[in-house]
Each structure stands twice: as structure tokens, then as C-alpha cells.
Design brief:
It is built from 8 helices and 5 strands, in the order βαβαααβαβααβα. By secondary structure, it is of the alpha/beta class. The longest helix is centred in the C-terminal third of the chain and has 19 residues.
């Protein structure tokens, strides 16, 4: 299947965007980009260092600029940052560029994945003064209506492997593509 558009993966950190994007790109013969990784490359700092040195506002500015650059292309899978959808201009850009897939998991699964990821690499910065589990719960509650509003499809990733999630996305794309013929 040839896709001449951008497919955006949105969702909270730990939802599976970075794991699913390369699988989906391989299966569809497309390129992929992980926005958080691109920000770290461009800034030559980890996200934690950006937050510590320049603050969240500066990070969100870099995030919006990075997204804008990549959304000028086509045939691309984009794993957005978890908070990318907080910017109204980014929301519009993502929605107007092609299908938006919301990868969603419950609080417990999200906490477990983030803690595992934080042990494997650079831990992500705290975004509130709350304890970690409460922060995840609070931010998920705040962001879920936005994820829902911008997405075309929601996939619960809590009990599925990246391969299963990729299969579900491809099934959705095939059905939606047939519906437009």
C-alpha cells in the first residue's frame, strides 16, 4: 500500500509511539521521524537537559519548530512528542496532514513503561510538582480530550505488542483508503 501523506502518532509518553513508528514505516515503505529524538539531535542536549537549562517553554518552541519542518514533507510516519498536541497550530497541522493515530494506555501501563524507559536511557523531566504516578494521571486527564479531538483512530496499547498495534493501524488505513475510492 502506497501512502502519500503523513501519518501522525500521538499519545502520552510511554504509549508506544517510538516503538510503533519504525515498524509502521517499514511495513508501509515510508520514512519515519521521532520528534523527541530530532529535538535532542538539533539541540545537542537530552530533553531533560533542555528542560533543566532552558525550561519547558523553550522545549515546546523547539518541538513546534521541529514538527513544522517535518510536516512540509510527505510519505512520513511522525512519532510526535506527548505534549505536541498542546499547541493549537500543531494540532491543526497534524490534523490537516493525514491520519492521526492516538496510542493510548491506562495510567498503570503508562507509569510502568515510563519507569522502564527511564532506566534504559535518559529519564524524562517532571512536568508538575506532583508525585510521578499522580503527575501521569493528572496530565493524561488533561490531555485525553485533546488527543481524542485530533485523532482519527484510538488504539489501546496497554495489552498489545508494537507489531499488533502496527497491524491495527494498517487495517484502519486499508479500510479508510477503500472508503475514499
Amino acid at each position: 500500500m502506497r501512502i502519500d501523506m503523513i501519518i501522525s502518532l500521538v499519545g502520552f509518553r510511554g504509549s508506544g509511539k517510538s516503538s510503533v513508528a519504525p515498524l509502521l514505516a517499514t511495513r508501509l515503505g515510508m520514512k519515519f521521524v521521532d520528534v523527541d529524538q530530532e529535538i535532542e539531535l538539533r539541540a545537542q542536549q537530552t530533553i531533560s537537559e533542555i528542560f533543566a537549562n532552558q525550561g519547558e517553554e523553550y522545549f515546546r518552541k523547539l518541538e513546534a519548530e521541529t514538527i513544522h519542518v517535518f510536516y512540509q514533507s510527505d510519505n512520513l510516519i511522525v512519532a510526535t512528542g506527548g505534549g505536541a498536541i498542546l499547541n493549537p497550530q500543531t494540532q491543526t497541522l497534524i490534523q490537516n496532514s493525514g491520519p492521526v493515530v492516538w496510542l493510548q494506555a491506562d495510567v498503570q501501563a503508562t507509569v510502568e513503561r515510563i519507569l522502564k524507559d527511564d532506566h534504559d536511557g535518559s529519564p524524562r523531566p517532571a512536568l508538575t510538582d506532583l508525585d510521578f504516578q499522580q503527575e501521569v494521571k493528572t496530565l493524561l486527564e488533561q490531555r485525553e480530550p485533546i488527543y481524542k479531538a485530533v485523532s482519527n483512530i484510538q488504539i489501546d496499547t496497554a495489552t498489545q505488542t508494537p507489531d499488533q498495534i502496527t497491524d491495527r493501524i494498517i487495517q484502519y488505513l486499508e479500510v479508510s483508503h477503500r472508503g475514499k475510492q
